[in-house]
Structures are given as structure tokens and as C-alpha cells.
Amino acid sequence: MAAAAGVLIGLLFVAVSLRPETVFGETASPGGRSRAGAAFTSLVNTFFVALVALIPRANLGQVAIIMAVLSLIGIARLHRQVPRQEVQAVLLVLGVGTYVYQLVAGVLLVITPKDRGQVFAIAYVGIASLAVALSRAWSLVQGKHLRPGASAAAEK
Fold this sequence. Notes:
Oligomer: single chain
Strand content: under 5%
Number of strands: 0
Number of domains: 1
Order of helices and strands: HHHHHHH
Number of helices: 7
Largest sheet: none
Helix content: over 70%
Structural class: mainly alpha
């Protein structure tokens, strides 16, 4: 999972580089910025949690808690900048739900460090995070963050 998240971070950069001015430029839509930021947050979260999971006897619960809190803060900051009509409600709810679940699993894992069930829960959270990140990155590639008529201006 660590390798997959690392590779997908690279692919996200490729997706963003297809239309960089629509994601990071002065004329970038808030929806494009939030999609790219949320995808990056999901991938970084998964990458670091999976990376720590590779370390023998590492406390996975602590890193899961830290990354869940940082991801929730990041998602909140990103979505405050987006006009309500551009918010992808389903992906926002899935992202927040995923990080809250990761936070709870991390707390339970800190309380009972040998609970394999919570380790599996965190692994499934990583898979869900990868799925959310992929859907956001794919929407960037498709140009769904562009307003009608903006794609023609962006391609000039």
C-alpha cells in the first residue's frame, strides 16, 4: 500500500500537470484546487500510515491518529475555499468519514496495541483513501473542475 500510494502521488502530479493553470494558477477554480488538495491529502495519509506499518513494532495507532487529524484539518481548510455549488458532497462525506474512522481505529489501537482487528481496519481505511484519491484525480484528468467554456480558454 505504501508503494501504491507513492506511485499514485506521482500520477496525481501528472494529472495536475495536464492543466496546471486550472488547478494552481490565478484563474484556477476553487473546485480544481480542492480536488487536487483532497487527493493529495488522501494519498499522503495512506503513504505515511502504510510506511509506518512496515516498521516492526511501530505504534500504528499513533501515526493513524496523527494523520487522521492532519487530514481532517486539511480537508476542512480546502473545502472552506470552495463555493457550495462546487462541493462534491459525496466525496467530502466519504473523505471525512474515512478519516474519522481512521481516528477511532487509531485510538482503539493505542488502547489495545495487539488488536489485529484495528490494524485491518486501518488497512481498509487506506484502501478507501486510495479509492477517494483516485476518483478525485480522475475528475481532474477529465476536467470536471472546469466551468463550461473554461476548458477552451485553459487550452489556449
